[in-house]
Amino acid sequence: MNEEQGTMNASQTPKQRGFTLIELLVVVTIIGLLAGLAIVNVKFAQRKAREAALMDNLATMRKAIDNFYADKQRYPSDLNELVPNYMRRIPRDPITKQIDWEVVMDDPLAAGMGESGEPIPAETDPEAVTQPGITDVKSVAVGMTLDNVPYNEL
């Protein structure tokens, strides 16, 4: 081997391998952007899951109220009347995390009147027509869903 080929001059530098500072900054920036997007999506996924649970709870309670009415020909006077025959328990509002539902009561006297103001004859139990009862439930949560619908209008 030739002596010139085996040794390096001081002016020659070996080829260095690695990443430049700019390449590293680009990679770190991309990773940061992706992490930021993932955090935002997780936040909205949790809220969307709570809203879906709220709509499911409302649908379940409304169905239980309808089944109660179909069986007894009157609406329940309290949500606890639905337990245990129509529901295992009254669910918590997933938004407020409390058992604090707004109940909508019917007005049996106004509903039992005809256009002329005379009472409509009851085909069911006469006591059932005069007792007020819960016809609907709503959430008491303040705010809007991701679809811009107020929670109390679901």
List keywords for this structure.
4 helices; two-stranded antiparallel sheet; rod-shaped; 154 residues; mainly alpha
Question: How would you characterize the overall build of this protein?
Answer:
- This protein is mostly helical and 154 residues long.
- The chain has one domain (19-153).
- Helix content is 42%, strand content 6%.
- The chain contains four helices and two strands; from the N terminus they run ααβααβ.
- The chain has helices at residues 3-6, 21-72, 108-111, 126-130, and strands spanning 102-105, 134-138.
- Strands 1-2 form a two-stranded antiparallel ribbon.
- The longest helix has 52 residues, at 21-72.
- The radius of gyration is 34 Å and the shape is rod-shaped.
- The mean pLDDT is 81.
Q: Overall 3D geometry?
A: rod-shaped
Mean pLDDT: 81
Spans of at least 5 consecutive residues whose pLDDT stays below 50 are none
Count of structural domains: 1
Oligomer: single chain
* Count of DSSP-assigned helices: 4
Helix content: 40-55%
Strand order of the largest sheet: 1-2
What is the terminal separation in angstroms? Answer: 87 Å
Q: How big a fraction of the residues is strand? A: 5-15%
Sketch the major β-sheet.
2 strands, antiparallel
Query: In terms of structural class, how would the helical and strand content be classed?
Result: mainly alpha
Q: What is the succession of H and E elements?
A: HHEHHE
Rg over C-alpha atoms, rounded to the nearest angstrom: 34 Å
Quantity of strands, as a count: 2
What's the topology here?
Blueprint: H1 3-6, H2 21-72, E1 102-105, H3 108-111, H4 126-130, E2 134-138
Antiparallel strand pairs: 1-2
